[in-house]
Specification:
- The complex is a heterodimer of chains A (493) and B (480).
- With 493 residues, chain A is an alpha/beta fold.
- Chain A contains 15 helices and 11 strands.
- Chain A has a domain of 268 residues: Alpha-Beta Complex (Amidase signature (AS) enzymes), CATH 3.90.1300.
- In chain B, strands 1, 2, 6, 7, 8, 11, 12, 13, 14 and 15 form a 10-stranded mixed sheet that branches. Chain B has a 3-stranded antiparallel sheet with strand order 5-4-16, with no helix packed on it.
- Chain B is α+β, with helices and mostly antiparallel strands and 480 residues long.
- In chain B, β14 and β15 form a beta hairpin.
- Chain B folds into 3 domains: 291 residues, no CATH class; 112 residues, no CATH class; 60 residues, Orthogonal Bundle (Arc Repressor Mutant, subunit A), CATH 1.10.10.
- The chains are: A alpha/beta (493), B alpha+beta (480).
- Chains A and B meet through α9 of A and loops of B.
Chain lengths: 493, 480
């Protein structure tokens, strides 16, 4: 087994036992990137020199007998909407194509302090708006399970990097499913933490009240390890939650006896791909067989949730993206007047989906429409929270499909924004409620594509979600951790 | 003009006196190199987030309480969205429908009477950056530069009810407002540095009418005086239009300081759509009642109360009480001195007159002086140890060197020369040296007596008492 085929926990063990050097680990992933990146296009910016530099520093510190973080030397890929000092951060947009942040996001500070080599910045839908990574201003990313399929989005590049063995760990961001949906389409474990669990400082905002950074990994343990590192109170983020952070690896392997499981009726819908529903229900039976108490639950606000989300998120986005005006940084189209400069810069700098959402949001916030749209959507959001509060009085976790279908074809939904929006239908209400939500692999379709299942917990209960995930990893049928990538010119790697 | 009643409402913005900005730790120091007091937060760089400066909230609450405004236990911040190069995030974090404080009032002295001016609200927001135009104004400039040092400084907005009736009243209101804010320590209120700015809404209505007329908004008034001039000008202009049967268009105008007139900027069709919505990067501001109570308890005595107290306690004139209120340091000096000296009006006269003059001349502040020394000086004078001209001379010395008047009197031999024993030989000398003057005096010419007194005053370098000399000269001449 090559180093790139190992997960982060395995690499961490080998590094701590000095069985391998961090430089060798990084090199193995760099080789893999070199082999596959031309076909998958998971990255926007590669940072091999920086990664090797960090790795060699970790190696010499280890050789000096310093006590290091368990993940020291385990490389990571970063979604390109997370600010990295001195390293271009584009949000996959022309408007930020040349933008180099002068500061690190708080999660990056944590990664650097722990000694994780950064392999590069990953591709995404522009400003995290999309579900297929086709909205990148640069190029689409391909799904390693089938190069004709999308990897999901918006954290598609991060998902593909991990799925294809180009990185053992990746950070994504999730506003309305952007971690969970690509995790599902690429067969990964992807966590959207409780809103406020992870600092947003340095995460380039799409919708501030919904954005959360989270880990994309191949296992529940890897996810817990990375979550341990990035969680916690941050005085730089007023919405970060104070309080103790548990060790998320502690509950792994504790089993699921007497766990109260609610199966969300709307998320195992008859309208979904039958293979998806079947895989989810099979995992549910497994839980029941091992002592979980399973019942059905209805969250009827799902449809309203989608509408509310597509008012709230664009409203916040229309304001968050106002700053890209060409005055201080980023693309500037020039012009004969300040107004012309503003409109030309923004007209040319943003892609069509971003402009669509800015227009929706601007409209929803306008005088005379605010009450009917934004305010109404906020009321729906409050009702959804109440629904969840009620559901978590009965259940410990809620389960359903992560996505209605496995990965779809590249180009299949690009002309139909509504169809594209519907691929996040199962993810959005969790986002609006702010609860933690995890997507894990639960099967392979007849076409050979991964199928995903979403587990939702009450506030701050990430540990329980990861515990259920690790149980299913062990008790369930053995799933391939990563695909064999079929190269267009033939051959599998 | 008398046909109409003038209705004015003011919107005042003032920078709070914090060391750091509202949402980051950048310095608020005025006059630094452009774009040096900046960080990712106040530059609105992608991914940056705001965090409250607790001091700004304290000062905002202080100001609101000083203005009798009701501080809300729960208020909220909103985004006011618009595009302008000086606005780094293309929105200003402000407060829309849940302001920090509601209502409030100020008592102002307008002419002879006292008037109550009500306030609508007091809220907290962030300051924008500043455009520096390549030419003289925004119109003729080829380009403009932006300085973001100011961006993010905490700004208090105070909105009055339309209770103000003239330019004079607006000015009186602003002067009192400045006093209150200086006293409470909330702001420096330096209009020339832009830390206090004022816009006005002004309209006219027929005397006795309840219905408000169409208003104009006047901006760019850079001093209290220009507020008065601009509003009086605009009131006259509107009266002329209305008297001629015309109508007022709702518009924003610019006060042109050179031309001394208001110039329309742009017509306002309703209000701009700022697409306000709750700022998702900040939690609602929830204040503990104890937090507000503590600030209330530590409010200093405010100007109106002080003015009244000075008048009553020391029996000072209204003008003197007002001066000791506006010039707080001088008033404090007066009160310290008055603890040991009860001829209050005499003390006040010396402080307002000679002392203030000497302070100005020497560039010193009242705080630099020891009140006890002034009392020493006044007591020497009261007891006849020195005379008035000497007292003035000593005051100058005292302010400049800080030496005690008693010591100075000894050092310089400035004590009064008095008593027959000391003065008689001098008188006799002058009488014998000036026989013509003595003769004239005996002929009934009073001027001759003054001449003789002057001679002795010159000989004693002013240390004798002219009245005493008069008496002795008369005695000596009639004894001859």
């Amino acid at each position: 087994m090559k180093l790139f085929q190992k997960n982060a926990a395995e690499l961490s063990n080998m590094l701590q036992k000095n069985e391998v050097s961090a430089v060798d680990v990084v090199q193995s992933f760099l080789d893999r990137i070199e082999l596959l990146e031309p076909h998958l296009k998971a990255f926007i910016t590669h940072t091999p020199a920086m990664a090797l530099q960090t790795a060699s520093e970790v190696d010499s510190r280890r050789n000096n007998g310093e006590k290091l973080h368990p993940l020291a030397g385990v490389p990571v890929a970063i979604k390109d909407n997370i600010s990295t000092q001195g390293l271009r951060t584009t949000c996959a947009s022309h408007i930020l194509e040349s933008y180099i942040p002068p500061y690190d996001a708080s999660v990056i500070t944590a990664l650097k302090r722990a000694g994780l080599p950064v392999l590069g910045k990953t591709n995404m839908d522009e400003f995290a708006m999309g579900s297929s990574t086709e909205n990148s201003a640069f190029y689409p990313t391909r799904n390693p399970w089938n190069l004709d399929k999308v990897p999901g989005g918006s954290s598609g590049g991060s998902a593909v990097a991990v799925s294809a063995g180009m990185a053992p760990l990746a950070l994504g961001s999730d506003t309305g499913g952007s971690i969970r949906q690509p995790a599902s389409l690429c067969g990964l474990t992807g966590l959207r933490p409780t809103y406020g669990r992870v600092s947003r400082y340095g995460l380039i905002a799409f919708a501030s009240s919904l954005d959360q950074i989270g880990p994309l990994t191949t296992t529940a343990r890897d996810n817990a390890l990375l979550l341990n590192l990035i969680s916690g109170y941050d005085p730089l983020d007023s919405t970060a939650l104070p309080g103790e952070v548990p060790d998320f690896t502690e509950d792994l392997g504790r089993g699921i006896k007497n766990l109260k499981v609610g199966v969300i009726r709307q998320n195992v819908s008859e309208g979904f791909d039958p293979e998806v529903t079947a895989a989810v229900l099979k995992a549910v039976s497994l839980l029941r067989d091992h002592g979980a108490e399973v019942d059905e639950v209805s969250l009827p606000l799902t449809d309203h949730g989608l509408s509310a989300y597509y008012l709230i998120a664009p409203s916040e986005a229309s304001s968050n993206l106002g700053r890209y005006d060409g005055v201080r940084y980023g693309y500037n189209a020039g012009g004969d007047s300040i107004d012309e400069m503003f409109s030309t810069t923004r007209g040319r700098g943003f892609g069509p989906e971003v402009k669509r959402r800015i227009m929706i949001g601007t409209y929803a916030l306008s005088a005379g429409y605010y009450d009917a749209y934004y305010l109404q959507a906020m009321k729906v959001r409050t009702m959804i929270r109440r629904d969840y509060d009620a559901a978590f009085k009965r259940f410990d976790i809620l389960i359903g499909a992560t996505t209605p279908t496995p990965a779809f074809n590249i180009g299949e939904k690009t002309d139909d924004p509504l169809q594209m929006y519907l691929s996040d239908i199962c993810n959005i209400t969790d986002s609006l409620a702010g609860v933690p939500s995890l997507s894990i692999p639960c099967g392979i379709s007849s076409e050979g594509l991964p199928l995903g299942m979403q587990i939702t917990g009450s506030y701050f209960n990430e540990a329980l979600l990861l515990r259920v995930a690790s149980f299913l990893e062990e008790a369930g049928e053995s799933l391939p951790m990563r695909p064999k990538v079929k190269l267009p010119e033939g051959g599998e790697v | 003009m008398n046909k109409y009643e003038v209705v004015i409402g003011l919107e005042i913005h003032l920078e709070l006196k914090t060391r750091s900005k509202l949402f980051c730790s950048c310095s608020t120091t005025f006059g630094q190199e452009p774009n040096t007091n900046c960080c990712p937060v106040c530059l609105g760089l992608p991914g940056s987030l705001p965090v409250f400066n607790r001091r700004a909230i304290e000062l905002a609450v202080t100001a609101a309480l000083a203005l009798n405004s009701k501080v809300q236990l729960r208020s909220r911040f909103d985004r006011k969205n618009y595009f302008y190069p000086d606005l780094p995030k293309a929105y200003q974090v402000s407060q829309y429908d849940q302001p920090l404080a509601r209502g409030g009032f100020m008592e102002i002295e307008s002419g002879e009477s006292e008037r109550i001016i009500n306030l609508e609200r007091v809220h907290l927001e962030e300051e924008a950056g500043k455009l520096v135009h390549a030419g003289n104004s925004i119109m003729g400039s080829a380009y403009s530069l932006v300085d973001y040092n100011r961006a993010g400084i905490p700004l208090l907005e105070i909105v009055t009810a339309p209770d103000i009736k003239s330019g004079q009243e607006a000015r009186a209101f602003l002067e009192d407002l400045r006093s209150i804010l200086l006293y409470s320590g909330a702001s420096d209120c330096k209009m020339e540095e832009g830390s206090l700015r004022c816009d006005a809404n002004i309209s006219l209505r027929p005397q006795g009418s309840e219905k408000l007329g169409t208003k104009a908004e006047v901006k760019n008034m850079n001093s209290f005086r220009s507020v008065e001039l601009a509003l009086n000008y605009e009131a006259e202009r509107q009266a002329e239009v209305l008297s001629a049967g015309g109508t007022i268009t709702q518009e924003t105008c610019h006060w042109d300081e050179e031309a001394k007139k208001t110039i329309p900027l742009r017509s306002k069709e309703g209000s701009s759509d700022y697409r306000y919505f709750p700022e998702p990067d900040l939690l609602p501001l929830v204040l503990e009642p104890a937090f507000i109570d503590n600030i209330y308890a530590s409010l200093p005595e405010l100007p109106a109360v002080r003015r009244k107290r000075l008048k009553e306690k020391y029996d000072l004139s209204a003008a003197t009480a007002a001066q000791f209120t506006v010039n707080r340091a001088l008033g404090d000096f007066f009160e310290t001195a008055a603890q040991d000296y009860d001829r209050y009006n005499n003390l006040a006269n010396w402080i307002q007159g000679d002392l203030q003059y000497q302070l100005r001349e020497s560039g010193k502040e009242a705080d630099d002086l020891d009140a006890k020394k002034l009392i020493e000086l006044l007591e020497l004078l009261d007891q006849g140890e020195i005379n008035r001209p000497v007292a003035k001379e000593l005051l100058t010395e005292m302010v400049n060197s800080g030496k005690s008047p008693k010591k100075l009197v000894k050092e310089k031999g400035l004590g009064r020369i008095s008593g027959d024993e000391k003065l008689r030989p001098l008188v006799d000398q002058v009488i014998s040296e000036n026989p013509d003057a003595v003769e004239n005096y005996l002929k009934g010419k009073d001027k001759a007596l003054a001449f003789l007194v002057g001679k002795i005053m010159a000989m004693t370098k002013g240390r004798a008492d002219p009245a005493e000399l008069n008496k002795i000269i008369k005695e000596r001449i009639s004894n001859k």
